[in-house]
Please model this.
Amino acid sequence: MAQPTSTNRGDGQICLSILIPMYNEAEMLQPLFSRLSQVLSSIPESSEIVFIDDGSSDKTWDLLQQLPVSSSEHQCIRLSRNFGKEAAMTAGLEQARGLAVILLDADLQDPPELIPQMLQAWREGFDVVNMKRRKRLGESWFKRLSAAAFYRVINSMAESPVPENVGDFRLISRQVVDSINELPERNRFMKGILSWPGFSQTEILFDRDPRHLGETKWNYSKLIGLAMDGITSFSIKPLRLATWAGLLTALSAFTYGGWVFLKTVLWGGEVAGYPSLMIVQVALAGVQLLALGLIGEYLGRVFMEVKQRPIYLIREVEQQQSTRTSVSHAEVGENVRYLESTR
Model:
């Protein structure tokens, strides 16, 4: 690929966009903004911070409006309700103007101080800079074990590999952002979507810190749902596994039936009745329910896709350059959707 052109401050072009989805992160906003501002003021490239308030019920939006003027431009996007982190990241990607885009969580587990290293890799010609977790500090052994199992399962099924121990924290070039924005699906598994375009990639290892303040908004039921979204969005192999399970069960039944028939004819043994019948019925019912469940998962996602509902709805947007200004719909432009389709 062609070498990216760094854009200095003052020439009107945004070089770097930092996307930060937020949901009830009022207590994290000040330490996050302080550390991020220090990092961005130390780099020569022009930058913007894109905050996406995903329907917070605390004072997150009020505090976003009170952010002080800094060396970076701000976009504060307020969604009409809580659409989920995947939708919030989609909104940020569609509004970002930078030649390079970095996705960053608001909990400061991913240190903003690594941004200069990510930019350097981008300057060297990489379209994707994946930040791979060397250590997952502050996480339970069960979460680490389940995460490792998830990556093994999805990478054994998906047509495009999902980098292991790489979260949403990464840098992607404008070419990758534009490719992702063209993807039409409503069921968004961003770890897979961010990896799907390919392009030239590199990794930077880092130690992930414990959460700075507050509590995570993710519980195990949400993580299981996200894992199901990832597997069903990027592979049809579970359906094939159900087919093979049904075939294996049928072959086993025919084999067992043939053995019972021959045993009865040749040796005259009695055919076991109730226990054998119950075992076969329970086994068949389990396989059938598993297959129906898998079909239902895929059918439900098809149902959600064909309705063509927007991924998110924007309630309002504020931008800040040298002074704070409230931006109307007409001033923001075509890319901002106010209660209308995002496509």
